[in-house]
Amino acid sequence: MQISGNVAIVTGSARGLGRSFAETLLARGAKVCLSDVDAEKGLETEKELQAAHGADNVVFVKCDVTKDEDYNKLWDTATEKLGPVMLLVNNAGIGNEKNWQLTMDINVGGCIRGTNLALERMGANKGGSGGVVVNVASIAGLKVVPFGPVYASSKHAIVGYSRSLGHEFYYGINKVKVQCLCPSFVQTDLLVNSKANAFSPEVAAVLGKIAGTFKYMSAETVSEGLIKLIEDGKNGGCLVVEAEKEPYYVEPPLA
Ligand SMILES: NC(=O)c1ccc[n+]([C@@H]2O[C@H](COP(=O)([O-])OP(=O)(O)OC[C@H]3O[C@@H](n4cnc5c(N)ncnc54)[C@H](O)[C@@H]3O)[C@@H](O)[C@H]2O)c1
Ligand SMILES: CCCCC/C=C\C=C\[C@H](O)C/C=C\C/C=C\CCCC(=O)O
User: Which residues are catalytic?
Assistant: First the structure.
């Protein structure tokens, strides 16, 4: 899909990777609707990005991805203020092994709620003109993660969901491409919060050593991966982004 001139929604974009995705899409000529459960930080980010990219190109709408009614309002406001939405990046996510229900509801439920709404609003079979959904999974959706089994299972679910819905069978009906992005580590608040909500002190200690164990990438490196995924337009594509490697597509076995 061409990015310039199109309208995108990015969930969880008040900070971290979501903010970087929004900045990169804006730099490529898209209009972006920021959204987050944290309205204070979201409005601060809106102000900064409007100053950098133009007040008519960025808007913030509060949306808790666990709430259907918030998603509906988000889509309506984005369309009203920026134009027809062609790209949804389901990015909001947490790592809370203690509150596993919340982790599943945000990480998996948020992607499914957002994707369902996107199919309803963009689907060619529903009067829309098609579009693209990118679900932000993680390399934790493809690997064993001893320090985060709940987080890993939420990300495995997103990979399976995106690859399945990204099947040609669905595209033939709705003309909406569904893809997923699987980054390795980036230093964001996610890691800090995951450590605070770790399953046990032993696991928290392991999370405290991530910096010395794995290589971090910049958020910009991951954002370049997002752009590649959107521009390649590989329906059902699952793109891995790791430090010091070119981004690469994976097809888990038994496909
Ligand atoms: N940081 C990494 O190393 C890394 C690697 C791979 C994938 N990811 C994924 O990238 C995404 C973004 O993570 P990040 O590292 O930028 O984390 P982050 O904590 O910096 O940002 C997450 C954002 O999501 C928002 N959020 C939390 N709950 C929400 C809800 N219910 N509704 C709406 N917004 C909500 C937060 O307020 C925050 O702004 C997550 O899905 C994460 O799993 C992160
Ligand atoms: C308790 C939650 C787990 C940690 C969550 C915090 C940050 C998350 C970052 C990313 O999503 C990556 C998470 C795990 C990566 C898993 C394996 C790393 C293997 C890297 C490699 O082999 O190169």
Answer: 151
Instruction: Output the CA 92–ligand 2 centroid distance in Å.
Output: 16
Of 24, 94, 184, the one to substitute when testing ligand 1's pocket (max ligand atoms within 8 A of C-beta) is 94
Distance, CA of 226 to chain centre = 9
Would you say residue 255 has pLDDT above 60? no
Q: Indicate whether 1 belongs to any domain.
A: no
Counted residue by residue, the chain has a size of 255
Buried b (16+ CB within 10 A) or exposed e, 194-221: bbebbbeeebbeebeeeeeeeeebebeb
Instruction: Assess if residue 167 is contained within a domain.
Output: yes
Beta bridge partners of 177: 132
Structural domain boundaries, residue 159: 7-241
For the complex shown, is ipTM > 0.95?
Answer: yes
| Chain segment 141-178, per-residue pLDDT in tens | 999 999 999 999 999 999 999 999 999 999 999 999 99
CATH number at residue 165: 3.40.50.720
Residue among 94, 184, 192 to mutate when testing ligand 2 (max atoms within 8 A of CB): 184
Q: How many domains does the chain have?
A: 1
Q: What are phi and psi of 26, to 5 degrees?
A: -65, -45
Q: Looking at the domain assignment, is residue 140 inside a domain?
A: yes
32 found inside a domain: yes
**Which ligand 1 atom is at minimum distance from the Cα of 181?**
7
Q: Output the ligand 2 site: residues, CB below 6 A.
A: 95, 97, 138-140, 143, 145, 147-148, 151, 184-185, 190-191, 194, 214, 242
